[in-house]
Specification:
Blueprint lengths: L10 H11 L17 E7 L1 H7 L2 H9 L2 E5 L14 E5 L3 H13 L4 E3 L2 H5 L6 H9 L1 E3 L2 E4 L3 E4 L6 H8 L5 E5 L11 E4 L12 E5 L6 E8 L2 E8 L6 H6 L3 E4 L16 H4 L4 H15 L3 E8 L6 E9 L9 H19 L4
Parallel strand pairs: 1-2, 1-3, 3-4, 6-15
Antiparallel strand pairs: 5-6, 7-10, 8-9, 8-10, 9-13, 11-12, 11-14, 14-15
Helix pairs in contact: 3-11
The structure holds adenosine-5'-triphosphate (ATP), Myo inositol 3,4,5,6 tetrakisphosphate and magnesium ion (2 copies).
Myo inositol 3,4,5,6 tetrakisphosphate binds next to helix 2.
Amino acid sequence: MRLNGEIEEDEEEEKVAKSLNSQTYSTGIGFPQLQSQNLVVGYALTSKKKKSFLQPKLIRLAWNKGIFFVAIDLKRPLSDQGPFDVVLHKLSGKDWCNIIEDYRQKHPEVTVLDPPDAIEHLHNRQSMLQDVADLNLSDCHGKVGVPRQLVISKDPSSIPHEVNKAGLQLPLVVKPLVVDGSAKSHELFLAYDQFSLAELEPPLVLQEFVNHGGILFKVYIVGEIIKVVRRFSLPNFSKHELEKVAGVFRFPRVSSASASADDADLEPSVAEHPPLLLLEKLARELRRRLGLRLFNIDIIREHGTRDVFYVIDINYFPGYGKMPDYEHIFTDFLLSFVQSKHKKRPTA
Ligand SMILES: Nc1ncnc2c1ncn2[C@@H]1O[C@H](COP(=O)(O)OP(=O)(O)OP(=O)(O)O)[C@@H](O)[C@H]1O
Ligand SMILES: O=P(O)(O)O[C@H]1[C@H](OP(=O)(O)O)[C@@H](OP(=O)(O)O)[C@@H](O)[C@@H](O)[C@@H]1OP(=O)(O)O
Ligand SMILES: [Mg+2]
Ligand SMILES: [Mg+2]
């Protein structure tokens, strides 16, 4: 069977994998001292993800803490591998979803990060923001909503009429409805008039552009932990610009660049992080409603306000390698499963 995403095992991992699979927990040279408090993490990641996430500093620290990463062999049945305490995965495709769901049912003692149906919820730009909209979060720390948006499933010729009917304000950010990890699903456009939109290929989401001073906050969530970083984003547009410009323009993945805006010289009203209490509440609610432990939230502050925020994107298992201190945060998170391991696995 062919699955999307390739996995490579390096020599060290292969040795550990063999040792684990044969269940002879060897302690010879080059092998970890496997003890009951150790944790075996099977992973199924694209080679891009493996490179950005499984950095030597993470593997080293994990090893010192008794956490061992073992590549899952996609050519062999998952149940024949391991035993794993935790399975980390980010691969696309229905086949993988079925495999991991089946494994979850048969191995309730293994923590699968995260359930495939919960991840699937984030693969659609409409359903991904629905929980934020339902939350209607507005308390003394600020207000969090989602930009007004419209889904165009087919027939691009109906777009100008649909946009007028929904009363959406220009410009609009045009996003592919489905996010499947492909470069195409991250191809975004800015539309200055509704007529040029008819050139684009549905299914699409048309989202109102919110001026936010060119700065975006990426809120990384790892279980209970929250880490916020500043990134550069699209600049504000002016009414004047809107009168002058027409058409649809593709724009690059500006906020995904590893260049952080954390040290940039910014206006304090733009640079100030959203209140931590607000983010904690948002993260707690989303963790519960989405049923996910590994995700990030892209959040912007409406320009000219102090406390009006919009969530524009949620990503499953994002680029944690770009998160400061990720190796400590992630290993501590994984260690929290050592205790549940003892509760779940009855001793012989
Ligand atoms: N409604 C909006 N208002 C203003 N800027 C926006 C809006 N939506 C998106 N952007 C800008 O476009 C960028 C990409 O949008 P978005 O995050 O939705 O796309 P993505 O392809 O899912 O990105 P990622 O790489 O984070 O997965 C944002 O980071 C932000 O800079
Ligand atoms: O490319 P990076 O490692 O940085 O991570 C990006 C990740 O790509 P990868 O999972 O293939 O690695 C993207 O996933 P897909 O939507 O394409 O599945 C998405 O989550 C981005 O938001 C991440 O960037 P960040 O939000 O953290 O800046
Ligand atoms: Mg984004
Ligand atoms: Mg995204």
